[in-house]
Amino acid sequence: MGLEAWFMDSSDEDQRKPHRLNPNQPVSLDELKELGVFYWKLNADIYETDPELEQIRKDQGYSYMDIITIHKDKLPNYEEKLKMFFEEHLHVDDEIRYILDGQAYFDVRDKEDRWIRISMRKGDLITLPAGIYHRFTLDETNYTKAMRLFVGEPVWKAYNRPADDFDIRQKYVASLQEPEREMLLPI
Fold first, then answer.
1. Fewer CB atoms inside 10 Å of the end CB: C or N, the chain?
2. How confident is the model at residue 35, as a pLDDT?
3. Residue 155: what pLDDT?
């Protein structure tokens, strides 16, 4: 099964629940691509020797890699970290995550500022573009193990919303307008 994503409801019920609208409003991979979100499905059982992962890392310049296990018995300051991950924020670099085990959600904002929930499962690799507002949470299984990939040295700094004055946010927003801009030329 490929990646599944949908528009979220506005309920403030437990963040780990799916939060689908009723009826469900799915979001396609093409719609995610328009937001700069890219996806690969890989075989997580062979991540240490996977030639496809190696090729992606080479093509994208992902030189840094580490692995984080998000579970109350494995992650120091677990509750605090989960709260921090779920704060709406952006980064000045792309965020690249590869789920090696378990499952989780990434939520991203669309062009109209609506939340899209992306369900991440074992074998899913995703890149969120620098400047996109997003957040992360576990699902009700309360467990995921993820590879974090980076171009060069990792920068773990998150900038909570509002961060609209950041250059990277303005570049990101401008990149969303580009196809439309051609139609808005002065007459």
1. C
2. 97
3. 86
Say if residues 57 and 40 touch (Cβ distance below 8 Å): no
Distance of alpha carbon 180 from alpha carbon 136, whole angstroms: 30
Write out the binding residues for Ni(2+).
89, 91, 95, 134
Could you tell me how far CA 87 lies from the centroid of its own chain? Answer: 13
CA 75 to chain centre: 20
Half-sphere exposure for 79 (CA within 13 Å, toward CB): 0
Enumerate the known binding-site residues for Fe(2+).
Answer: 89, 91, 95, 134
> According to the model, what pLDDT value does residue 185 have?
45
Residues of the chain with confidence (pLDDT) below 50: 181-187
CA 61 – CA 56 distance, rounded (Å):
8
The structure's pTM equals 0.93
Binding-site residues, in ranges, read: 89, 91, 95, 134
Counting every residue written for the chain, the total comes to 187
Amino acid identity of 14? D
Give domain limits for the chain. 4-171
Alpha-carbon span 42 to 36, nearest angstrom: 20
pLDDT at 156: 81
